[in-house]
Amino acid sequence: MNKQRTSWLQHGLRAACAAALLAAAGAAAAKIEGVKGTNFTLVAKAGYISTADGGSVYNWGYALGSGTDCAAAANANSQMQYPGPTLIVNEGDVVTITLCNQLPTNTSLIFPGQAEVTATGAGTAASFTTGNQSNRGLTIEARPRGKVTYTFVAMKPGTYSYQSGTQMNVQVEMGLAGALIVRPNGKPNQAYRHAGTRFDREHLLVLSEIDPEWHELVRKQAEAVVVPNPIGNFNWKVNTAAFPARNPLYWFINGRNAPDTMTEAFAPQLPSQPYNALPRMHPGERLLLRMVNIGRDLHPFHHHGSNTWTIAIDGRMLASGPATGPDLARSDNTLRMIPGQTVDAIYEWTGKGLGWDVYGIKCDNTLPATDPTSCDAVYAQLDPRMRHQDPSDRGKPLPTVIPSALEMTFGDMYSGSPYLGATGNVPVGAGRLGSGGAYFHMFHSHNEREIINFGVFPGGMMTMVVIEPWNVTID
To answer: What are phi and psi of 396, to 5 degrees?
Structure first.
């Protein structure tokens, strides 16, 4: 691993500039980036990922190929990514995925939650073994320079994952995993077939962790391997017998550590980590969080600002019957993401219960609607989408005295006003992220050691959700 580090300030400035561009330009950060279709080619290969403290880590990942000619895919110089490409299909689709292997060891794919997956190809038939699992997997494996094609029918909508089924303690740790989304037919704004799973916006958050020492040990072994041609009986695997106990030092959302989680999608400085992790929404909207844990550790994922309602786990709606909708949904402020699990949760922010008018509107809530200075009359002239807060809070000022500028420290996200969509005077250089008057609420692991980068706080599994005023266009 490259242990050269640059300062937190330098990387913070980079993230700040990118986030400011997002806020100003309304860049696409409220949709799920991924690949739509029914036929996909994934190329398993080695590469490097960047960490937010200036390091780089040897990694394995999937590159998106074209066609099923693995020789052509090998020559395409495609970029592996972490996590793997997000595959987006529709309920009922016949999905075909060709795995091309450019690693020096056998590898395979498994699809938790999908039934009757068939695998074809000149690979190695895999089976369960006892004791040492060797490098046998759960399905047909692609040999080095080989390929296997997997086919299944996406029978049930939901959020799923895919991953290597070969020597999983190594290959999943190395990055061979990604997300699969199955959309219900004809219902693009629902997570499942029931209207109770409706959403206005959605964001995918893939959680993981990395032990950089393991990755460096794998690199040394893999780069010393020479795959013969013809391959014959060659069957190398990573030998972990002398590996130390696993000790992750980096934690990720969508393959990035904070503050890179808040940089725009497809940032050129992060070619192996194209997906960002900065959900954006308007107050009163329903944000669907599609959560996937591809790591080996449990991650308690905590969100500020509001509870979420968990409506599904592992691609199955929490329902007491086929027509009841998510009537078993549960509310919580922390999602207990166990390894391999997926969760669909609805997050809403309305400002209800704050006890003050989030827009800072001056009106009198005690007067009848016929009075032009009453809150009913004033709000009737405003965008109706601004009526999401408690009616009793309209017209109420912030219940505190704001200190003078000389007595206050200005954060990058403070616009100069405590009110949504409003701005005020800030010192030169302050408030760079708050130019639109948005609210920022933190999403992060509640295991505090997971919000660091190589032992330095803050970083790791941490990002923000941005509550934008209604006059800001998000899509």
So the answer is: -80, 130
Dihedral sign from CA coordinates of 282, 88, 174, 292: positive
- Tell me the two tokens of residue 218: 């794998």
Closest C-alpha to 244, from 220, 209, 208, 214: 214
Residue 126 and residue 93: Cα distance in Å, rounded?
26
- Sheet strand arrangement including 56-65: 56-65, 39-50, 94-101, 147-153, 118-120
8-state DSSP, 285: -
Q: How far is CA 196 from CA 172, 191, 323, 349, 421, in A?
A: 34, 9, 10, 17, 30
> Between the CA of residue 331 and those of 19, 33, 194, 327, 345, what are the distances in Å?
30, 27, 19, 12, 9
| Beta bridge pairs of residue 158 | 182
pLDDT tens digits for 180-228? 999 999 999 999 999 999 999 999 999 999 999 999 999 999 999 999 9
Short-list 415, 181, 388, 387, CA closest to 275: 181
* Location of structure tokens 């509640």: 446
Helix (H) or strand (E) holding 336: strand 334-337
How far apart are alpha carbons 124 and 292 in whole angstroms?
29
Q: What's the burial of 312, exposed, middle or buried (CB within 10 Å: 0-12/13-18/19+)? A: buried
Q: How many CB atoms lie within 10 A of CB 182?
A: 25
How do 462-467 and 280-281 pair as beta strands? parallel
Look up residue 152 and give its DSSP letter: E
For residue range 426-473, list pLDDT tens digits in order: 888 777 777 789 999 999 999 999 999 999 999 999 999 999 999 999
CA separation for the pair 175, 161 (Å, rounded): 13
Average pLDDT, the chain: 90
For the record, the structure tokens of 70 come out as 């693995």
- Greatest Cα pair distance, the chain, in angstroms, is 88
Reported pTM: 0.90
Distances (CA, A) of 46 to 214, 418, 421: 14, 47, 45
CB-CB contact of 241 with 312 (8 Å): no
> How many CB atoms sit inside 10 A of residue 149's CB?
19
| 101 contacts 150 by C-beta, under 8 angstroms | no
Distance CA 386, CA 470 (A): 7
Tell me the C-alpha distance between 101 and 143, whole Å.
7
Report which of 341, 109, 123, 105 is spatially closest to residue 224, judged by C-alpha positions. 105
Domains and CATH numbers, the chain: 8-262 (2.60.40.420)
